[in-house]
Structures are given as C-alpha cells and as structure tokens.
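Lay summary. Proteins are chains of building blocks that fold into shapes, and those shapes determine what they do. In this project we predict the shape from the chain. Here is one chain we studied, written as its sequence of building blocks.
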Amino acid sequence: MKVAFATQDLKRVDAHFGWAKNIAIYEVGPESSHFVEAIEFDGDLKEDGNEDKLAPKIEAIKDCAILYVAAIGGSGAARVVANNIHPMKVSQPEEISDLIEKLATVLRGTPPPWLRKVMSKGQERTFDFDE
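And here is the predicted shape, written in a compact code that computers can read:
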C-alpha cells in the first residue's frame, strides 16, 4: 500500500500537512518497502485558512492509504479522511525509515481493523454470489 509522509527534509515526519514543503510517498508491505516519489510544494504554505494549498496535496496523495503528519488542521483532516486516507499524527519528529519499519512490523502481525480496511484501498472487491 502507498503511504505518504509530510516532511520538510525528506528524512523525518516533521511537518504540518498544510505547511509541508514535501510529501514523500513509499510503497510499504509486510516484507519490503521502497521509495516511490517526493512531491515538492512551494508558495506561501503557512497562510492559515488558505484551503487552496490543500487541494494539490490531497490530489498528490489520493492513492495513498495512510498519511503521517506532525500536525493537521481540522478541515485538512476532514478532507484527507473524505478521500479514504487515514491520517496518523506523530507526537515528535520521527525518522520516516523508523515509521516504515514499525508499520511493516504491524503488517506482519495481526493489523487492527482500521488498518486492514485501509490496506484494501485501491483493490477491487468482487463477490461471487453463485456459491
């Protein structure tokens, strides 16, 4: 599944979603992970109430299942959730590599119900009613 990280330095989750200069996207699975892309944003990102700054970020992460942030505003969180992306807030800056390893460990075990649900994002569900 694809996971997005709000980051200023591409190494740590250390950014408020709306203010983040970069979003790093990784493909994360129970046994392996790899870097997909980094998307850079510019302009006045700290302008509170400027909802237009969120649209390109949400568009950039729309196929991600999880978004790690240092902080996220109420309207940003609502828009992220409305796009079926689960926001995860870190209490202090954390290395992206550490977060990926923690997530992979959970995926190797028994993921909680919310994580099982987001893991299915982007996968077609088919039902065979003939049985």
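What the prediction tells us: The beta strands are 2-7, 12-13, 22-28, 33-40, 66-69, 86-89, 94-95.
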